Amino acid sequence: MSRKILALTLVLLIFSAFTASSQTLDDILNKYYEARGGYEKVKSVKSMKTTGKQMVQGMEVPFIIQQKRPNLLRIEATLQEQTIIQGYDGETAWMINPLTGSNDPQTLPEEQAKNIIEQADIDGYLVDYKEKGHTVELIGEEDVEGTAAYKLKVNLKNGDIRYNYLDAEYFLELKVIAKIKRQDTEIEAVTYYSDYKEVDGMMMAHSFETKRGGTTVSQIAVDNIELNVEMDDAIFKIPAKTEKEETPKQ
Fold first, then answer.
1. Which residue of 50, 74, 106, 134 is most buried, as measured by CB atoms within 10 A?
2. What burial letters (b/e) apply to 135-145, b meaning 16+ CB within 10 Å?
């Protein structure tokens, strides 16, 4: 190899390295906001209603998810002709599960409440992450099934870890690896995002596939997303328990 060719090769390598490193975390997140529809557009969403179906262990589970600022959440899922409800009112995470033999609402313990509280964040944890107490680190660039992606490590305030993979061209989420600590066990789940569609000026995934150990454990198909729907705060609060009538003494 001649000195001129060698010099040119070194220049190209240096230029490539500089170009790759010039993408800072702030640059990537700003492009992520823009890809979703813009930071202001994201923050303008006051409520969101999502309907769809989840396939779990061969069963189709229709669901309705209602979210409202600042951090309210209600999920209704129909399984075996029974409606399971989970909710969060900003303070208390709760559940009604008739499959347990009771229709009384139950307060969720801290470990089980983590996922509900995380999902109640209507913007997602990458938006305003510092104010929410999370930390985000740019790890580098990796391949996700043939697509270049930026890999971000997210340390959530609750102690769980997420690895978000953003498409290096379109800056939308391709994959999220969730590392969840429950008691002394760490659970790893990989979720793939696809079928992005525009909803009132925002790009949103309509298909999700979650795998554990390489095996698909859940598939979600979103049928409809509605933004800024009127919602009463009362639907997010834990209902009162049903009072049982005492049996009259003989």
1. 74
2. ebebeeeeeee
Identity of the residue numbered 113:
A
CA dist 171 and 194 (Å) reads 13
Each domain of the chain, given as residue ranges in start order, spans 46-122, 124-225
Distance between CA atoms of 39 and 148, rounded to whole angstroms? 24
Sequence-distant (≥ 6) Cβ neighbours of residue 244 within 8 angstroms: none
233: left (phi over 0), alpha (psi -120 to 50) or beta: alpha
Per-residue pLDDT of the chain (250 residues; tens, 9 = 90+): 554 444 444 444 444 443 444 689 999 999 999 999 999 999 999 999 999 999 998 899 999 999 999 999 999 999 989 999 999 999 999 999 999 888 999 999 988 899 999 999 999 999 999 999 999 999 999 999 999 999 999 999 999 999 999 999 999 999 999 987 766 788 899 999 999 999 999 999 999 999 999 999 999 999 999 999 999 999 999 998 876 544 455 4
What is the pTM for the complete model shown? 0.86
Alpha helical stretches, state H, the chain? 3-21, 25-36, 39-44, 110-119
End-to-end CA distance of the chain: 105
- Fold designation for 124-225: outer membrane lipoprotein receptor (LolB), chain A (2.50.20)
